[in-house]
Amino acid sequence: MSTVSTARTVDWDGTDGGAVTAIDQRALPGEYRILRLASVDELVAAVADLTIRGAPALGAAGALGVALAARRHPDDPWRVRAEAERVAAVRPTAVNLRRGVERALARLDEGADAVVAAARALLDEDEATNRRLGRRAADLLTELCPGRPLRVLTHCNSGALATVARGTGLGAVHELADRGLVAEVLACETRPLLQGARLTVWELREMGVPHRLCVDSAGASAIARGLVDAVVVGADRVAANGDAANKIGTYALACAAAQSGVPVVVVAPDTTVDHATASGAEIVIEERAPDEVRAFAGVPTAPPDTPVYNPAFDVTPAALLAAVVTESATFRDGAWSVPVEAAGAVAANAGSACGSR
User: How far apart are CA 112 and CA 183, in angstroms?
Assistant: First the structure.
């Protein structure tokens, strides 16, 4: 990737009492800028308005939010816990957010420095995790679709911008590209906020990966026409039974892929798997503001009083997925298989499920 995008999506700045730095994802692709968030209020607002987004990045932001609170209120643990709960509650679907908060809070009794250290350790681990995750997912994809560079369809943004660095679903594409195994990526625009058009396409350009952009409603048609070998996406929460919550529109793509025999692979870190949630039916789906749908770039596209249904996510049943891949486990055929070294064998047993050319 080019020099401009080598900064971590979220990070800790230890100067002047400490602050969170974040790539402003609202400004892309027109402007690349890094914000300095010096208060919990600013961090909560950044999570709510999608300045920071993507499940792993939200996990890091959660931990960093606790670090901010601990720095600002070193002698008031009750206040720190209250601020931490504010952060954890901003976006309910992504389990990583609360897990990041809880991880940093676990060090609160040791003082603010320990909380900051826990948050910074999470940043380092996320980057390393995503590299392992990308390798495992790329291995599986090359087994599912052997013998040629792949035409991949992706939805929303699961690249470096959705994590601390490298990415999940798009991280696997990055790994495939490094191996010379990407023919083209077809990126869905991802209405209503265009994370695919604004962010994924920007990242693909930075990577130098061949790509095209399509409207969301063209994705199923591209699959049916044989233009796609595999669908690769991230997730905001994966239930114990393998059901996966991802950006709204993923379920429709998975239905189309199942009809055409094209594998759908979900790529997400272990922290996105919620074994306390039995199935996708238990996942709380965030609904966002009506004006995201009633207007585009501030220009009204519907009457101002139009009732709106605007879920941020949908749930794809495990039965429609070829696999869920984490850095240490693979969900396939109704069960989790843990050993990393078994990933190749799991994929080989699947045979060639790839869409025909």
Answer: 48
Identify each DSSP E strand in the chain by its residue range. 10-13, 19-23, 34-37, 150-154, 182-188, 211-214, 230-233, 237-239, 244-247, 264-267, 273-274, 295-296, 299-300, 313-316, 323-325, 330-332, 335-337
Beta bridge partners of 264: 231
| Residues contacting 334, CB < 8 A, separation 6+ | 241, 242, 318
Q: Which residue bears the tokens 């039995």? A: 278
With the C-alpha atoms ordered 85, 249, 166, 47, is the resulting torsion angle positive or negative?
Answer: negative
| DSSP reduced 3-state for 25 | coil
Provide DSSP, 218-230: GHHHHHHTT--SE
pLDDT at 298: 86
Please identify every residue annotated as catalytic: 236
Q: 3-state class of 106 per DSSP?
A: coil
Give the residue from 217, 212, 206, 166 showing the smallest Cα distance to 187: 212
Q: Give all domains of the chain, ordered by start, each with its CATH number.
A: 3-126 (1.20.120.420), 132-350 (3.40.50.10470)
- Look at residue 10 and give its three-state secondary structure: strand
Enter the tokens of residue 65.
């939010």
CA-to-CA distance for 148 and 153, rounded, in angstroms? 16
pLDDT of residue 79: 97
pLDDT at 349 over 60: no
pLDDT on residue 94 = 84
Residue 353: predicted pLDDT:
54
pTM of the model: 0.90
| Burial label, 164 (beta-carbon count in 10 A; 0-12, 13-18, 19+) | buried
Q: What are the φ/ψ torsions at residue 92 (nearest 5 degrees)?
A: -80, -20
pLDDT exceeds 80 at position 230: yes
d(C-alpha 336, C-alpha 331), whole Å: 4
The chain-wide mean pLDDT, for the chain, equals 92
